[in-house]
Structures are given as C-alpha cells and as structure tokens.
C-alpha cells in the first residue's frame, strides 16, 4: 500500500509498552500523520533507517524516548545526525522528566524539540500539533 504523501510519517522509539499504546491510541486517528511501526531501542531506530532503500520511505519525524535501553535518545540522536543520509531528519526527544541539561544537549545535537511526555489525549494532540508546526516545513526527500 502506497504512503499518503500529504501525511507526515512518524517513527516512534519507545521502550515502554503503555506509552507506545498511549501514542497509538491518542494519535492513531489523526489524518495528518502516518504512524510507522514503532521500535523499542535506539539500536532498532538505526537498523530501521539503515534498511530503507529510498529517501521517500524515510520518516519525516522521529520521536525518541530519552530513557531507552542500549541507546538512549541523546545517543540515538547523535548517531542519526552523524549519518549523512539521515542528518536532515527532524528528531524530537521526549521524556518523563525534561531538565535543562537534556534540553541543552538535545538542541546542541540537532533535536528540533525536547518535550515532556504528555499524560492525556489532549496533551498528546497538543504535542503533535507543536511537532507538526515546528517540523512541517522541512522535507527529507
């Protein structure tokens, strides 16, 4: 099935099953996004991206949980931004706790946003609206 080019393709990296399900439940019915199959570690993000053979299939936006096993969000962001083919991708880091150090490091490495995890459907929709506003004008192809 071909992807709808008007939708933003989003790859979520989240190791917590409940948080992944919240994301899908709260955002799965939005018509402006296409949720790609989620992954649970930063290593899986890199493997997923490396397995894509044409630029049009790359996600427009990657949302990384900061606290993942094997590679956390910052480590994954660093790896994404160091790979030429992926370096222009829009990356958002989100975490239960977002302090000044995480915000500064994320921005320094090229994250477009560093956000606190929402706890309500409205919060997820507001976060996604902000992400799409900030990331909306950039194309990866």
UniProtKB/TrEMBL annotation:
Coiled coil: none annotated. Keywords: Phosphoprotein. This is Response regulator. It holds the Pfam family Response_reg. The modification 4-aspartylphosphate is found at residue 65. Gene3D superfamilies: 3.40.50.2300. SUPFAM superfamilies: CheY-like. InterPro entries: CheY-like_superfamily, Sig_transdc_resp-reg_receiver, TCS_response_regulator.
